[in-house]
Write a structure and sequence with these properties.
The complex is a heterodimer of chains A (309) and B (521).
Chain A lengths: L2 H30 L7 H19 L2 H25 L4 H20 L26 H4 L3 H19 L1 H11 L1 H6 L4 H27 L11 H11 L7 H20 L6 H26 L17
Helix pairs in contact in A: 1-6, 1-9, 1-10, 1-11, 2-3, 2-4, 2-9, 2-10, 3-9, 6-7, 10-11, 10-12, 11-12
Chain B lengths: L11 E12 L2 E12 L3 E5 L6 H8 L7 E6 L2 E3 L4 H6 L2 E4 L11 H6 L11 H14 L15 H14 L4 E5 L7 H16 L3 E6 L2 H7 L2 E6 L2 E7 L5 H9 L19 E11 L5 E11 L3 E5 L6 H8 L7 E6 L2 E3 L3 H7 L1 E4 L14 H5 L10 E2 L2 E2 L1 H14 L16 H14 L4 E5 L7 H17 L2 E5 L3 H7 L2 E6 L2 E2 L3 E2 L5 H8 L15
Parallel strand pairs in B: 3-8, 3-9, 6-7, 7-8, 13-20, 13-21, 16-19, 19-20
Antiparallel strand pairs in B: 1-2, 1-4, 4-5, 9-10, 11-12, 11-14, 14-15, 17-18, 21-22, 21-23
Helix pairs in contact in B: 13-14
Classes of the chains: A mainly alpha (309), B alpha/beta (521).
């Protein structure tokens, strides 16, 4: 493999990693305040169809994104109502929600299969890179890729340097303390469940409006679940999500590239690669936890009820 | 506080009228009228379950009362949640600290503080907190992660947290239960300092001597009712004790150590090294022996390796190095081997480790005997036998429950502990590892647990008593050792220890004079 191919794979990996990055930033926020949102896959699918539908109906991709934000916030509020207010089991709720959304998105999406959206996110041309065309695959990305990077940095700043970020961290590690100091744990958990859901929705919209502009049933293809592993890999730190997401993305790109190069390995095996990776990562993270102590939020997936332990 | 406050009739700063609170099946507070004066240290004295904590949780907004009113400086306030309590100037230092272990000291102090802007300016915050801690003489480093602090230091952080918010009332719930004797002395100095700066302190305790030392006035609660409020100078420990338990206190009979029992080592632990749950080295080569009929008391501030030691001795925690031998035979491997060798465990966590919460009392009491006939019948269980044998044990150990089929989780702490004792003692152990065996129990239950342990000692059982209650250790133990940061001092006869030397060993400092025993940093 020459340098050009490697740079191409990295560029392709950044594109492929971007939806993971959006979802992972959101999930880090949700998990840091104690909510395990396993509805990501479903939220991505709903985001993908909502974005595609509104973008093709109005002919404006930004209206598509706006619709995704509204719908995802609504879905996130429903999830929060169940998991935070009614204290349902978060694992079961997330899985049931995903199954529901898989079906719903397929139903809504029926008329849009094969429909071409006129306005989608295109790679930004960077004429000043004409001198070094090799770098183009890396830096010529669509606007959502750049927003994701900014969002990642902003999330780091928010979590560690602001008062709201402090409350977010406290809500996940010791909600009773936060409550005793007069900050509503429910409010904090509602906010970030909704924010996390919006970002998962945008991740889905990225798939249908930028990554492969079209609507295909079940097009999230496990990326939502992958994100859960990614959050573990990032050790629940927002600044780490970017490394993890791009790494996963590069594995995607690599598996396609190797397939195209006609390597004598069954293509199914190569495509399996990005999905085996999470298993390996989860083992590594739990091994690290055994050595150095777990750094997962202490009350992850544990609903809060004042007065109970 | 005005300088003449002592001369004029002190102002009623906080008044509770007719506070009543019921929980399913329990009347926790029954029309309590409590008056707190400005600038006093007011002790709230009572046994576990007397309603002290419920009353204070009502003041801090964690519970809402069923009836009653709260007045601050003569004005009625409605405290519906912690936010209201803070707005009314009521701050509480809980027995189990409300600190986020993963966060820094300064972060913990500013959580939820209204006047904090959206952006955290670390240097400014750190400076501000350092100033405050200097003003009240409460040394603490704002930049340390709370996890790395000792219990005494954590308590200081809690107090600073309340001072930072300029709380007028400071409620301390059993503040000395996690402290060494020296740290307790320090705490009393801080409290007096706060009093002179005009704060009102409510001090919750069940320890008479502490109350007599620190309080201006004392209120005794029993069974949810307020018995009386009086000036400390007009009462005596004896009178307080009588009000507290409703009868004359019996002094626990000092144990005559049975010299007849032949002294031979039962347990030999050598070089025990083990990791804690967080992966840190929790035990660093601990070696000791316990002889037949000996109670070895292990003192120490919690979190210094006690739990890990208990788990290592009962086979629940794998050893990195070292051996456990009982009567010259090494035991290793599964927990079952330790049980079969004759080691009984009265665990720290009665619900999680000591019992299966949703199982019935019968099932819980036979957990150690179901493998053997007569309860075992081939590969099935003989339920009739189980009920017969279990029922007899429950009766013998006076476990009070509505029916033997009641799930154990519905039992009170005392009855639960009796059931665990019934199971662990009835199998005739050679060694009992008892961890905080009387934690959270009322005086009667404490007496009973102590009597069972002494009875086992007389039978010739070796006992390792791990406790944070120094009084308990001094009352029961033949010899005492101290554990600090995973290392154990050699054991000494209990008469060779004093409260001071024990306290120093618990903090890992050599015992010298008062001055050099300073532990502020």
């Amino acid at each position: 493999m020459d340098l050009r191919t490697i740079l191409w794979i990295i560029g392709m990996g950044i594109t492929a990693g971007t939806p993971l990055l959006y979802a992972a930033i959101g999930e880090v926020l949700a998990e840091r305040c104690g909510v395990l949102n396993l509805g990501l896959e479903g939220l991505m699918l709903m985001g993908a169809i909502t974005g595609y539908m509104f973008a093709s109906l109005t002919g404006d991709k930004w209206i598509g994104i706006l619709a995704v934000i509204v719908i995802s916030a609504l879905l996130g509020a429903i999830l929060a109502l169940l998991m935070v207010t009614y204290r349902t089991n978060q694992v079961a709720t997330g899985i049931a929600f995903t199954i529901f959304c898989t079906g719903l998105s397929a139903l809504i999406g029926k008329p849009y299969i094969g429909v071409v959206a006129t306005d989608t996110f295109k790679k930004i041309r960077m004429p000043f890179l004409d001198g070094v065309p090799m770098l183009k695959p890396i830096f010529e990305q669509d606007i959502l890729v750049y927003i994701a990077v900014i969002l990642c940095i902003a999330a780091w700043f928010f979590v560690y340097k602001t008062k709201a970020g402090l409350h977010l961290r406290a809500a996940g590690d010791n909600p009773a303390t936060l409550d005793s100091l007069g900050v509503s744990v429910y409010k904090v958990r509602y906010i970030y469940t909704i924010v996390g859901s919006i970002l998962a929705g945008i991740a889905g919209a990225y798939l249908s409006l930028a990554y492969s502009p079209s609507w295909i049933e079940g097009m999230a293809a496990g990326r939502g679940w992958l994100t859960i592993a990614l959050v573990n890999f990032a050790l629940w730190k927002p600044q780490n999500t970017i490394t993890g997401a791009y790494l996963f993305g590069i594995f995607y790109a690599l598996s396609y590239r190797l397939e195209a190069m006609g390597i004598a390995v069954p293509s199914y095996f190569l495509r399996m690669f990005p999905y085996v990776l999470p298993l390996v990562i989860l083992i590594l993270v739990s091994w690290r936890a055994k050595q150095k102590g777990s750094i997962a939020p202490k009350t992850l997936a544990v609903p809060y009820l004042r007065g109970s332990k | 506080m005005s300088p003449t406050a002592d001369l004029v009739v002190a102002e009623n700063a906080l008044e509770l009228r007719g506070i009543t609170k019921t929980f399913p099946g329990v009347l926790a507070n029954q029309s309590v009228d409590l008056t707190i004066r400005k600038g006093e240290i007011h002790a709230l004295l009572g046994e576990n379950g007397a309603g002290k904590s419920t009353l204070m949780n009502i003041l801090t907004g964690l519970y809402t009362p069923d009836a009653g009113k709260i007045f601050i400086h003569g004005k009625e306030v409605h405290i519906r949640n912690p936010k209201d309590a803070i707005a009314s100037g009521i701050g509480m230092v809980h027995q189990h600290f409300k600190l986020v272990e993963e966060l820094k000291v300064y972060e913990n102090i500013i959580i939820g503080w209204k006047e904090q802007g959206w952006l955290l300016n670390q240097p400014v915050l750190v400076k501000h907190i350092a100033d405050l801690s200097a003003r009240y003489n409460l040394p603490v480093d704002p930049n340390i992660t709370v996890r790395d602090l000792s219990a005494g230091q954590k308590q200081r952080v809690e107090i600073i947290k309340m001072l930072y918010r300029n709380m007028e009332f400071l409620i301390l719930d059993e503040p000395t239960s996690v402290l060494t004797p020296q740290e307790t002395e320090k705490l009393f100095v801080y409290l007096r300092e706060m009093k002179t700066q005009g704060k009102t302190v409510i001090f919750i305790s069940h320890k008479l001597n502490e109350v007599m030392e620190i309080a201006d006035r004392v209120t005794v609660l029993r069974e949810g009712r307020l018995i009386r409020t009086m000036d400390k100078d007009q009462t005596s420990p004896k009178e307080l004790a009588r009000m507290m338990i409703g009868r004359e206190m019996e002094t626990i009979a000092k144990i005559a150590i049975d010299k007849e029992v032949r002294r031979e080592p039962v347990l030999v632990a050598e070089g025990l090294t083990a990791k804690g749950d967080e992966g840190q080295v929790a035990l660093k080569g601990v070696s000791f022996t316990i002889e037949k009929g000996e109670i070895l008391g292990l003192a120490g501030v919690s979190g210094n390796g006690q739990s890990e030691l208990a788990e290592a001795l009962t086979g629940m925690r794998p050893l990195e190095a070292g051996t456990v031998s009982l009567n010259q035979k090494e035991i290793k491997g599964a927990t079952l081997h330790f049980i079969q060798a004759g080691i009984s465990h009265i665990p720290e966590d009665r619900i999680g480790t000591g019992s299966i919460p949703s199982f019935s009392c019968i099932d819980n009491v036979i957990l150690k005997s179901y493998r053997k006939p007569p309860i075992r019948r081939g590969w099935t269980l003989n339920h009739r036998k189980a009920e017969e044998i279990g029922g007899r044990l429950l009766k013998e150990y006076d476990v009070r429950m509505s029916s033997p089929n009641t799930p154990i989780k519905l039992l009170s702490g005392g009855n639960m502990q009796k059931l665990i004792l019934a199971r662990e003692i009835s199998c005739g152990p050679k060694l009992i590892v008892a961890v905080h065996p009387t934690y959270g129990l009322d005086i009667c239950a404490v007496e009973m647990v102590h009597n069972y342990l002494i009875q086992e000692q007389k039978r010739g059982c070796a006992i390792l008593l791990i406790s944070e209650d120094l009084d308990e250790i001094l009352t029961l133990s033949d010899s005492i050792a101290v554990i600090y940061k995973g290392e154990m001092t050699s054991k000494k006869h209990r008469n060779d220890w004093t409260i001071e030397t024990l306290g120093c060993a618990m903090m890992g400092i050599p015992y010298q004079t008062e001055e050099s025993a300073d532990v502020t940093n």
